[in-house]
Design goal:
The protein has 316 residues and is an alpha/beta fold. It has 2 domains: 1-101, Spore Coat Polysaccharide Biosynthesis Protein SpsA, Chain A (Alpha-Beta Complex), CATH 3.90.550; 102-316, no CATH class. The chain is 27% helix and 22% strand. It has 10 helices and 14 strands. The strands form 4 sheets. Strands 3-2-1-4-10-6-13-5 form an 8-stranded mixed sheet, with helices on both faces. Strands 7-14 form a two-stranded antiparallel sheet. Strands 8-9 form a two-stranded antiparallel ribbon. Helix 1 (25-35) links the parallel strand 1 (13-18) and strand 2. Helix 7 (249-260) runs antiparallel to helix 8 (271-277). The longest helix has 12 residues, at 80-91.
C-alpha cells in the first residue's frame, strides 16, 4: 500500500526492513509516532506471523507505506538494496531515520524536543545527521524464563544494560567507527572479541540521493558521513538505539535463524552464538545498570546531548 503521496517535502521519514516482528511492531510504531515521525516506509520480507496483516491495517492511517518481497534478505545485501531504493526514491532532501524494528532511537531532551525540533536543531548547527550507540537491553535472569504479556512493550521486560566497557577504532578506507562491547561481547564472544557485533550506527541523516549505506547503518558513503559519530564520550551530539533483541522469543527463533543463514557476512562465525542463545542464557550480572532514561545514558557518557539553547542563539 503506497501512501507516499501524503508526504510533504519536510516529512520526517522512518525506513525499516522487517520479517516476523509482530511482538515489537505496536510499540515500535507507537515510539516513533510519539517521537514525531511523519511517515514510515516499510519493507516486509515474507512475514508469516501476522506482521503483514498488521502493517496493512496500520497503512490505512495514511502515515505508513508498505512494500512486500519474498526475495533473499542476504542476497539483497541484508536488505540494503530495498532500503537504499526507498531512500533514493523518497528520502532525497528529507530527514530519514533508518532502523530495525528492535531499535528505539532515544536522546536526552526527547520528552521536550521531538524529532522535528531535533532535526531543526541539527540543521541550524550544520550537523547533517546523528550517530548512535546500539545499546543491548536484557532482562534479569535466563532469557527463556520470562513471560511476555500481551501488548507489553519490549522495554518493560528488558530493563538492564552494560554501561562499560566499550572499545572502538576507526577503520580504513571509509573512516567508519568500529565499536564493540556490551553483553554480546561479554557473554558470547569473550574468547574472540574481534568477532563481536558492531554497535555503532548512523541512523538519522538528512538524505541525499548520492548517499549510500554500505554495511547496515554502521557505515556510509561519502566517507564524511562516518564522521557524524565519534562514539561514547565523543564531542559530537549523539543518541542511543535501545536494542530489544533479547526478548524470550530469541531463544526459540535462534535455531531457525541459524539454519536460514540470512544474517551476518560470514554466518559460520556465528554458529556458536546461535547455539548459546538457544540455551536461554542469563545476560545479567552484578555490574548491570537498570535503564531509566536518555538523560541517565548521557550522564554515563553513552551519548551526548544537543545544546538546544546554543542552537537557538545561533539563529538570532
Amino acid at each position: 500500500m503506497d501512501n507516499t503521496a501524503q508526504m510533504s517535502r519536510d516529512s520526517r521519514l522512518v525506513v525499516v526492513v522487517l520479517r516476523n516482528e509482530i511482538k515489537r511492531l505496536p510499540s515500535f510504531l507507537a515510539h516513533y509516532r510519539r517521537l514525531g515521525a511523519d511517515h514510515f516506509l516499510v519493507v516486509d520480507n515474507s512475514s508469516d506471523d501476522g506482521s503483514a496483516a498488521y502493517l496493512q491495517a496500520e497503512a490505512s492511517r495514511g502515515d505508513l507505506s508498505l512494500w512486500q518481497t519474498s526475495d533473499s534478505y542476504r542476497e539483497s545485501r541484508f536488505g540494503l538494496d530495498w532500503s537504499g531504493w526507498l531512500l533514493m526514491r523518497y528520502g532525497h532532501g528529507r530527514w530519514c531515520m533508518t532502523v530495525d524494528v528492535d531499535e528505539l532511537f532515544v536522546y536526552p531532551g526527547m520528552e521536550r524536543h521531538d524529532l522535528r525540533e531535533l532535526t531543526d536543531c541539527l540543521d541550524r548547527s550544520g550537523q547533517g545527521g546523528m550517530g548512535a550507540l546500539m545499546l543491548d537491553l536484557f532482562p534479569k535472569g535466563p532469557l527463556n524464563q520470562h513471560q511476555e504479556q500481551a501488548q507489553q512493550a519490549p522495554t518493560d521486560l528488558l530493563r538492564w544494560f552494560d554501561a562499560k566497557p566499550y572499545r572502538m577504532v576507526r577503520q580504513a578506507p571509509q573512516g567508519n567507527l568500529w565499536l564493540q562491547g556490551g553483553p554480546r561481547a561479554r557473554v558470547f564472544f569473550a574468547e574472540t572479541p574481534d568477532q563481536a557485533p558492531t554497535l555503532n550506527k548512523i541512523p538519522l541523516i538528512r538524505w541525499n540521493r548520492r548517499f549510500a549505506y554500505t554495511n547496515s547503518t554502521h557505515a556510509a558513503l561519502p566517507r564524511e558521513l562516518n564522521a557524524l559519530y565519534d562514539g561514547p564520550g565523543g564531542p559530537v551530539p549523539s543518541a542511543v538505539l535501545l536494542h530489544t533483541k533479547f526478548l524470550p522469543e530469541v531463544v526459540e527463533k535462534s535455531p531457525s535463524e541459524r539454519k536460514r543463514r540470512q544474517h551476518f557476512h560470514n554466518p559460520d562465525l556465528f554458529d556458536d552464538y546461535y547455539r548459546e542463545l538457544a540455551q536461554g542464557p542469563d545476560l545479567w550480572h552484578a555490574e548491570a545498570v537498570h535503564y531509566e532514561s536518555p538523560e541517565q545514558l548521557a550522564a554515563l557518557g553513552l551519548c551526548r546531548p544537543m545544546d538546544w539553547s546554543a542552537s537557538r542563539e545561533g539563529t538570532a
